[in-house]
Amino acid sequence: MADIQQSPHQTDLDEARSVLRALAAALTAFIIWGVSPVFFKQLGHVAPLEILAHRVVWTVIMLAILFQIRGLWPAVRAEIGSKRKLIAYTATTILIATNWGVFIWAINDQRIVQVSLGYYINPLVVVALAMIFLGERLRRLQAISVVFAIAGVGYSVWQVGNIPLVTLCLAFSFSTYAVIRKREGLDPFIGLFVETLLLVPVAVAYIAYRELEGVGAIMNTGIGTHVLLFLAGIVTAIPLICYMQGARHLPLKTMGLLSYIAPSLQLLVGVALYGEAFTTDTMITFGLIWIGLAIYTTDSFHARRKPKPPVTP
Question: What's the rounded Cα separation, in Å, for the pair 145 and 49?
């Protein structure tokens, strides 16, 4: 039977459906990341490092199952085939563990607003680090956007009297992580598996230590907590998979705009759901950051049409 060629109309319809699926996937990723503080708040009775350890273990298991289904093990072996990449993965592993650990601790220490600010300034910190470590030149509007970010953080330090360590730690750990990944060309999906796999021995050892000391979550909590600890792996893996699906089919400018959904939802969750303070000084800090982001986004729209999509925790 002769092959029937698709009409141009059918091809356009298929492309439109593909874009809509990608948009839905990207929205799912950023919404999950945005409301994830609600999930981790339910584990407030578990030590932050123990939550982190379970998150690592269950993420590895989830990704290993997926890799087995999709036959990705040769790609994993190829990804870690060079000494240079292993060194790079060692660095990114430390950075992502730091980012996750601070994120979990901050959420359960009533610092969700600071968390959201950290992820708001993340793209601006990436721009600054790319200039320093990758030799990329800042365009005029990029430089102005970075100045506004510095002004926002500086105002916070001046008013509060101390450095917003949670905000800066989250922003710089993830930005440095992104810059290293870009410089070394690390695969975003397989890379997460490699990083969590490198953390597994430490994570398992810490879980075992907590249980042997009689204070571990496995022996001292009920089935509800056990399920939540298991779901930590899903909360980590699913949005990443959705993000990659979106990034594959959507332009950078779309992904860039969507990426602000996550910190916006985090801010809303912190203030509206958990009653964290949003004072006039905090509003001014955020206002300066938002102006910087508006300038940065405007510049990104006009400067280049199809670069690589941004990375989101």
Answer: 35
